[in-house]
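Lab notebook page, bench 4
Experiment: in silico fold of construct C2
Operator: M.H.
Input chain length: 115 residues
Purpose: comparison with the prior construct
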Amino acid sequence: MHTLAGVPVHGCTAAPTLLGLLAVAGLTAVFVAHERRAAHPIVPAAVARSMPVTASMLLLLAVTGGVFGALFAATFVLQERLGLGPLATGLRLLPVTVVMVFGAPTAAAALRPSA
């Protein structure tokens, strides 16, 4: 997160940004290697190999990245381009947050298989 927050200051190809991304990639590789050898991994191998679980996790990652990316971009536009303060920006983004909070249980109920 610190690396991404520094991109506006340093730029995408600056040494601090590239080193931060390299560190994240390295730590991710170490974590994955550790989990593969662990007696009790966070996600059991049988679950990780399940195609429906893998597909749903990839979909969740894409949707979450899109939603939070949109919130990040909206915050940037509202504060940097339109000159709004943090409180005004937060109040304008509050409906999105409310929909996310109340939409999650609604989606879970809608996706529940009918008996």
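Observations: The radius of gyration is 19 Å. Residues 66 and 79 are 20 Å apart (CA to CA).
Next step: discuss at group meeting.
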